[in-house]
Amino acid sequence: MSFTLPRYFLRFHLSFTSRTASTRAKNNHGYLFLAPKANTTKFTTASIPGDKPQKLSAEELLVVVGGGAAGVYGAIRAKTVASNLNVLVIEKGKLLSKVKISGGGRCNVTNGHCADNLVLADHYPRGNKELRGSFFNVHGPTDTMSWFVDKGVDLKTEDDGRVFPVSNNSSSVIDCLLSEAKCRGVSLQTGKLVTSASASASGKFLLKIEKRTLKSVELVEADYLLIASGSSQQGHNLAVQLGHSIVDPVPSLFTFKIEDAQLVELSGVTFSKVIVKLKLENVQRNIPQLTQVGPMLVTHWGLSGPAILRLSAWGARYLYSSGYKGKLIVDFVPDLHVEDLKSMLSQQKNRFLKQKVLNSCPMELQLVKRFWKYILDREGLVGDTLWASVSNSSIVSIANLLKHCTFEVKGKGQFKDEFVTAGGVPLSEIHLNTMESRIQPNLYFAGEVLNVDGVTGGFNFQNAWSGGYIAGSTIGRLAAGNANLVGAL
């Protein structure tokens, strides 16, 4: 494994087993690297002597771990506030990869129907109490939308509050962020992994960065560190190395697997409004959030849609501990009282005695024929049954089934547009007004690396934008203040 040592800010006297190495400098992405001559033996980690790093520049460095929404947004903000600050973003994969796939490739930027911060905070199963403070006041959905519009990304707000670029293409958002980063002078490096971090007595961070393809290692000393690595283990490991604890991550935002051969026949059927209630053996008390209202979709493996996804988010930890098994009770006609429903069905019977039940679903219910057949099949009413043959007890049973239809949840699927976890660095360990660690000075967090997750609808990205903006602003102000102090000296 070979080493390249960036000018931020290391100078090591490299010694070899059989010879004394000389150094040569080369430029790479704006950094000066010190590396062994080509004809010398390459180094392993054990070959690095313990000399104290020496700073070669008066300029300060911010290293951002993670090139997602929070990391890139935070990097841009820091560089905007402090143009003198060197900002380096390290990403192990592709930049803004989740931005690219979110919203079916359209990128659900934020939610435009939550002007009230208390209402907005209620969309975060983890973080709903903590985010009621100043967090969204500093940079909320309106600020996010203004930022992108000012940068040339036209946005639109759909009926459910989700905000998308007018282009309906996530590349509009990605191109905007990358262009702004480049314009500001942010250095973006991919294919690299920050594998270790430690803080020196002087408060600097010594980072070990591995390049995945060439198996080389860089050692970087940074003045500020922003961990915005999403739910990846990388960020959790670094947080622990720097003294933080981690709330064990579990999946959030997923679909329900339902074992029901008849339900499979309904794949693709949607319901504009249902009430779904989750019953779990390990949860005996009443939890209001385990009941959700909204649209639902039947898939070839079970149930999905906004109502199910919200339920999975609020029930994430309960579902995890129950092995993703439980009972789901669905009200398919939430705007009708059960007695009114019974009366409607009785009237339907009296009006269409000689018609087949299958061909004569009450129009007011607005149920597709495939689903009506499913309900009748569950009640044992075959397709040729006439309304005249339907007993009053069957009418009561049909009404109860439409209001309280029970499904056995046998597991979880995944929501292809979101990869969200519940868990991460506890919010009690950071200052939300600055995003700085309460444990380690000059260490910051933003985005999903924290124990914050939102329901579907643009809320997870808003957490990323807000946290990145606050962290970047704080770091930028500190760096600008230090630069002014040095200038005055």
Automatic annotation (TrEMBL):
Highest taxon above the source species: Eukaryota
Positions of the RsdA/BaiN/AoA(So)-like Rossmann fold-like domain: 62-473
The entry's keywords: FAD, Flavoprotein
Cofactor: FAD
InterPro entries assigned to the protein according to its UniProt record, in alphabetical order: BaiN-like, BaiN-like_dom_sf, FAD/NAD-bd_sf, RsdA/BaiN/AoA(So)-like_dom, RsdA/BaiN/AoA(So)_Rossmann
Domain RsdA/BaiN/AoA(So)-like insert: 250-420
PANTHER family linked to this entry: OS12G0638800 PROTEIN (PTHR42887:SF2)
Name by which UniProt lists this protein: FAD-dependent oxidoreductase 2 FAD binding domain-containing protein
Organism in which the protein naturally occurs: Gossypium raimondii
